[in-house]
Protein: Phage tail protein
Amino acid sequence: MAATASRADPFLAFRFEVRLDDLPVGGFSDCGGLAVETEFFDYPAGGVNDHLLRFPGRSRQVNLVLKRGIVDRLLWDWHADLVRGVVRFRNGTVVVRDPSGTIAQLRFEFRRALPVKWTGPELSAGGGQVAVESLEIAHHGLDRRA
Structure:
């Protein structure tokens, strides 16, 4: 009889938390921008006519975009301080948890983050939607742990 293989299910994207240094754990509804891009340069070498040589260049981190229902002023204040010239870098972590929420399955750590853009809610007197704010964060590096 064949041995049964262990099953490895993919991580689910709905159970996560975002931590920013000294700020309370954020209850965000969306977290985007977990990406690193590397640019490549094409080099047409003489005598090589069937393809271009490709060389990697610099890598760049994409800005993180965090969205949540407005519950306090902390994210606004961080961005407002930057606008006034008070630069306060923060390190952060995005933790993906198992469906029960008890086990951290995956961590993304980012360093020296600054708020680049704060966007307030779309307001409509005719709707009953939650007021959602968005914060775009630039950072100096993204590492995957676990």
